[in-house]
Amino acid sequence: MAAAGKTLPPRKRPIAKPAITPKLYNLRRKALASHDEWAMNVLHRIGEALNAPGGAESTNTRPGPQGQVLKWPEIYKPVPTPLTSPLPLRSAKLVTQAVLLLLLSLEKYDARSRTFLLILASSLRVPVDVVIELESETAKTLIAVSKQMSADAESKKRSDEGRVSRRWKVGLASVAGAAVIGVTGGLAAPLVAAGIGGLLSGVGLGATAFAGYLGAVAGSGAIMGALFGAYGGKMTGEMVERYAAEVKDFAFVPLRKSDPCLRVTIGITGWLTDPNEVILPWKALNENSEVYALRWEMGALIDLGSSLHEVLKSYAWSYVKLEIIKRTVLASLWAAIWPVALLRAARVIDNPFSIAKHRSEKAGQVLADAIINKAQGERPVTLVGFSLGARVIYYCLQSLAERGAYGLVENVVLMGAPVPSSGDTWTCARTVVAGRIVNVYSEKDYILGFLYRTSSVQFGIAGLQPVKVPGIENLDVSNRVEGHLRYRHVVGVILKEIFGHDVDVGEVSREEEVLKALELKDEQIERERKEREKEGGRSRDVDGEIDSALERAERGLEERKIRREEEEVRRKRREARREERRRRE
């Protein structure tokens, strides 16, 4: 008991931890079980290599890529190890390279495997660009090996038809300039290595060590084909055609013709004013990964982008922006107080946004199907999108989590995402992404706030504010993005800050020049607005210009609708004629 006249300080109550829902509990359990299975496979394979009989083969110790030390993200924080003090960089690179081959010997390059490799490299003080160079050279070597195996098999078939091994053919008619590649499986790894040893000098290890670490992969063209998604054919071939029946225009469009890589990046655009814009925002991504742009619901995205562009490009919208910046976008959203001019524009932008927003959910589910069915092969995927493209990714991750599809997605970047900033979906998404999830937002994106005003704003908007969920990174680009349409022009600048090593510096420089021109145009519009105010023509100019812009947007919507209907009629006629010819035959 307390002494007389003395009072005890109030006892602090323990802070209650938020209760985890049964859904999240089951999800966490499945994710941990999948991770444990992957970890055991990796440890078992490394143990096999360490305990293999025989001495180590002498390796090619050419200098190789030295690289520059780039800042590692927090997720790849180095693990303390006594190896770093006595281990020179050359040896550290060979260790990293050997582990890469061991990971590939599991017959897939799991997204978790790549994250593990980057953590290992960080711990051994191997620069990130050296890891990327090792991946690139290894991919080129594997492709060279598979082609050599194909040539050897053809020669063997001609000399002795009775001793030919099974052949595996992959049709690449859907890829421009690609040929049918015949690859023979079943060849012993040492025989393969002995036959093409000269091709392996680029990766730093000797031929026998290379083949030994790769295991069965070194002797099987079928496994190599599966690893690379049949050398890109699955991303653009018949497999993807069936998805177009569920989401109109669904297709993966390759950005450039390049050698297959050990990683795949998919960029997803959120609105369009021209069909070519499916590809243009993603040209800033370099050849460190195999880059594709996702084409989806072209009609809906062009309706949305064209309507927004038509309405927002007029001088009158400088007055609308002036009204909004008097308060924050979120304040306008919560108070439901918007400039009258912006509310008048709702009649031409609300419906296109609502249609595209709804279809983005289906597109996300179909994208998840494609990833689960290994359109990308057995390689990790990075998903990058802005506006409704980010929403596609959001629903893709949700579908992957619900189906327990772990180890497929490596990194995710969502820019200006019209999705909730809170809720369990972000936690679910974190379980299926092995590397980084970055939410890019702008507190000044008044167009996003206005478009999203009829949705569940009580759960927040990820494109306007940070996502406060463990494991989610947030990047504020308010100084770069004041309107939703600006994201199209800052993709490279943003990705340079997030993935500096995967970005084409030249393309980013050109993008920055375009940005400067846009900023100068904004300054000119602001000067003209002030001059008009001095002349007393503000109300007349604003009302007249907004009405004209709305009329042009409405005409554009109607004209595009008529063209699509006419095209649909022509398509049905073509199908009817083909069906008639089939019946006659």
Automatic annotation (TrEMBL):
Chain segments annotated as transmembrane: 172-198, 210-232
Record-stated family: Belongs to the TMCO4 family.
Annotated segments matching region Disordered? 526-549, 564-585
Q: Does the record's keyword annotation contain Iron? A: no
Q: Which organism is it from?
A: Tuber borchii (White truffle)
Per UniProt, the keywords (alphabetical) are: Membrane, Transmembrane, Transmembrane helix
- The protein in question is named DUF726-domain-containing protein
Cellular location(s) = Membrane
Q: How does it sit in the membrane?
A: Multi-pass membrane protein
Quote the PANTHER family the UniProt record gives. Answer: DUF726 DOMAIN PROTEIN (AFU_ORTHOLOGUE AFUA_2G12860), TRANSMEMBRANE AND COILED-COIL DOMAIN-CONTAINING PROTEIN 4 TMCO4
This protein's superkingdom? Eukaryota
Residue spans with biased composition (Basic residues)? 571-585
Kindly state one GO CC term assigned in the UniProt record: membrane
